Amino acid sequence: MTPRLRRFTDIEQAAPPLIAVYAKVREPLLHLPNYAVSTFTERLERHGVDPGFEAVIAFEDAGQPVGYAYGNTVEAGDRWWKRMDCVETQFTVSPTLALKEIGVVEPYRGTGLARRVHDELLDRRDESSVSLMVNPAAGEGKVQGLYETWGYRGIGSVQPSPDSPPLVMMIRPIR
Q1: So what's the pLDDT on residue 175?
Q2: What is the pTM for the complete model shown?
Q3: Helix (H) or strand (E) holding 56
Q4: Strands of 129-134's sheet, edge to edge?
Q5: Are 27 and 103 within 8 A, CB to CB?
Q6: Taking the C-alpha atoms of 22, 97, 166 and 38 in order, what is their torsion angle to the nearest 10 degrees?
Q7: Residues of the chain predicted below pLDDT 50
Q8: Which ranges in the chain belong to alpha helices (H)?
């Protein structure tokens, strides 16, 4: 059966299924400090009160969450942009959707569910562009390559925290 997608703008409602599906998606990495469930929960609580927070979660018929994406609006001067060594003003002149997390559990990888969740999150947004950070080593480069097929392009590198690997900042128009 095709998972159903549900939108959330309330962090209190979104947090339990987001944390549950995150733990499944990132299970092989949970021993690393940057990927620990407690670290994710702290980030989620912070992001959930930021302007424009929204999540899309995919649920199986039995109600189990199997995929997710969430983000919020960022503007010039936001720490999202300040982490980059040098960001061109063209990327910060108007509000941008910062795609903070996206993931799908193993049985659904390669089925198009990640793209469905991604596109549903972008569908009703007012921002003109969407930005994300990706680990260029993830999937031996395949994850970044996938985002490129979705229209994203790299615009710089960033290391969001000391425990984080170096990441590539990517951006694309929403429409």
Answers
A1: 86
A2: 0.94
A3: strand 54-59
A4: 4-8, 54-59, 65-74, 96-104, 129-134, 167-173, 153-158
A5: no
A6: -30
A7: none
A8: 11-25, 37-47, 79-82, 113-123, 142-149
